[in-house]
């Protein structure tokens, strides 16, 4: 069992979570649970997180929501509910537990439950900076999950109603969620790079075990990668819809041309917009540098 305690243990836990190094986090759990570790009140949260993320990692690159997943993740669900029930005074733990539950329920195709979890987290009302990179990533994933849930529910509602206005409303809400997720995802990558390069270990210093896992630290994961794709698709679709609307007004002889809406920005400009907006994302890093260099694109 690791003999780390206090701030050193907390730093190592944060590093493992940011890296997605679930094997290392599993090794740290006995130390987290030990008396006077300083992290006793987040043990159930970390255990539930390890169980959920380890299972999802085994599923490969593509996450396919399915109710059949539930039997494999119900143990994680129990741990996360325990966190919410027994550690209500720890605001950051409650936030993260609810966001992990939203990911779990999305995985199990429980889309309405997932949206309720996100609402319970209060993430959309929070004004405080993210205390860790892991929290920043969880919120980015939650916005993406909310968008995916809204899209899935929109398809379901379309089969029951042909109301175009209703479908458009779903699409606009989903687009907002995907854009917000993209902003936070880009902010996550930027902050990760800053953390890595601002604390290069001197020669002879101990290197974190995360540096030899061989798993790219900057890998976004299937949910966020899917989100970035959906932003471009929905942007293009919205631009076409706005163009058709303006052409229809012109053909009716009104001679009026309405100004382009904020959501009619071309898809090609989306990534630039997200990068600009991500500068406003509030992040207050607390943990030390990640232990490995990020893979840089050519």
Give descriptors for this structure.
single chain; 298 residues; mainly alpha; 2 domains; 62% helix
Task: Kindly summarize this structure in a few lines.
With 298 residues, the protein is mainly α. The protein has helices at residues 6-19, 22-33, 43-58, 70-86, 91-107, 111-121, 133-158, 164-197, 222-251, 270-278. Residues 207-218, 256-275 and 285-298 have low confidence and may be disordered.
Walkthrough of the structure:
It is a single chain. The protein is elongated, with a radius of gyration of 21 Å. It folds into 2 domains: about 130 residues, no CATH class; about 140 residues. It contains 10 helices and no strands. The C terminus is likely disordered. By secondary structure, the chain is an all-alpha fold. The relative contact order is 0.12.
Portion of residues in beta strands equals under 5%
Count of spatially separate domains: 2
The largest sheet, given as strand count, sense and whether it forms a barrel, is: none
- Described by the principal axes of the CA atoms, the overall outline is elongated
Helical stretch tally:
10
From the alpha carbons, calculate the radius of gyration and give it in angstroms.
Answer: 21 Å
SS content category? mainly alpha
Please give the share of residues in helix: 55-70%
Mean pLDDT: 78
DSSP E strands, number? 0
Query: Uncertain segments of ≥5 residues (pLDDT<50)?
Result: 207-218, 256-275, 285-298
Tell me the series of helices and strands, N- to C-terminal. HHHHHHHHHH
Distance between the termini: 41 Å
């Amino acid at each position: 069992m690791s003999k780390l305690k206090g701030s050193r243990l907390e730093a190592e836990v944060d590093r493992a979570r940011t890296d997605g190094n679930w094997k290392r986090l599993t090794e740290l759990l006995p130390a987290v649970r030990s008396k006077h570790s300083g992290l006793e009140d987040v043990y159930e949260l970390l255990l539930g997180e390890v169980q959920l993320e380890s299972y999802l990692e085994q599923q490969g690159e593509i996450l396919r929501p399915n109710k059949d997943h539930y039997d494999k993740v119900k143990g994680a669900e129990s741990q996360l509910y325990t966190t919410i029930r027994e550690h209500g005074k720890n605001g950051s733990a409650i936030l993260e537990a609810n966001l992990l539950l939203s990911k779990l329920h999305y995985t199990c195709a429980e889309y309405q439950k997932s949206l309720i979890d996100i609402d319970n987290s209060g993430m959309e009302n929070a004004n405080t900076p993210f205390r860790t990179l892991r929290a920043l990533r969880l919120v980015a994933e939650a916005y993406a999950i909310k968008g995916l849930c809204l899209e899935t529910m929109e398809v379901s509602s379309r089969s029951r109603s042909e109301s175009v206005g209703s479908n458009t409303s779903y699409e606009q809400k989903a687009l907002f969620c995907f854009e917000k997720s993209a902003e936070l995802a880009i902010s996550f990558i930027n902050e990760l790079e800053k953390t890595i390069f601002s604390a290069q270990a001197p020669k002879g210093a101990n290197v974190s075990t995360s540096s030899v896992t061989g798993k790219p630290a900057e890998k976004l994961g299937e949910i966020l990668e899917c989100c970035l794709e959906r932003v471009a698709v929905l942007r293009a679709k919205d631009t076409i819809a706005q163009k058709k609307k303006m052409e229809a007004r012109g053909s009716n002889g009104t001679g009026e041309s309405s100004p382009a809406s904020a959501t009619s920005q071309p898809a090609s400009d989306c990534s630039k917009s997200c990068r600009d907006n991500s500068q406003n994302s509030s992040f207050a890093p607390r943990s030390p540098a990640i232990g490995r260099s990020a893979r840089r694109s050519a």
